[in-house]
Design goal:
The chain is mainly beta. The chain is 5% helix and 41% strand. The chain is built from one helix and eleven strands; from the N terminus they run αβββββββββββ. 27% of the residues are buried. Bound molecules: FE2/S2 (inorganic) cluster.
């Protein structure tokens, strides 16, 4: 039961095996599209899937280190902070807490 308490706001999204070795996938959590990305160091991040520049799925972009690059106009976002690190985007995207429990990936997205 203590496990449930510690994960109560986290939703199980996928297993680590279901993620690309370095890359991203999209999941819908609490009605929001979330980009689940594994960076070059093997760390898993969860950010809002919609690019802050236009309505484009970031999970279809490329990972470079701990950065994801939007495929449409090349904006780059730091997966750890959601901050834009390359134009044309100037607004950050939301970042959500990730928890790994064994092989399972949990993400907490506010309702
Ligand atoms: S839509 Fe992502 S950079 Fe333009």
């Amino acid at each position: 039961m203590s496990e449930q308490t510690s994960t109560e706001e986290f939703v199980r999204v996928c297993t680590l095996d279901e993620l690309p070795q370095v890359g991203a996938a999209c999941a819908e959590i609490n009605g929001k599209r979330v980009c689940i990305a594994r960076d070059s160091a093997g760390d898993v991040h969860a950010i809002d899937d919609t690019c802050s520049h236009a309505n484009v799925s970031l999970s279809e972009g490329d990972i470079d280190g701990h950065t994801i690059e939007c495929w449409l106009h090349g904006s780059r976002f730091d997966l750890r902070s959601g901050e834009p690190t390359g134009l044309p985007a100037t607004e950050p995207v939301a970042v959500y807490p990730v928890k790994i429990d064994g092989d399972d990936v949990y993400v907490a997205v506010p309702n």
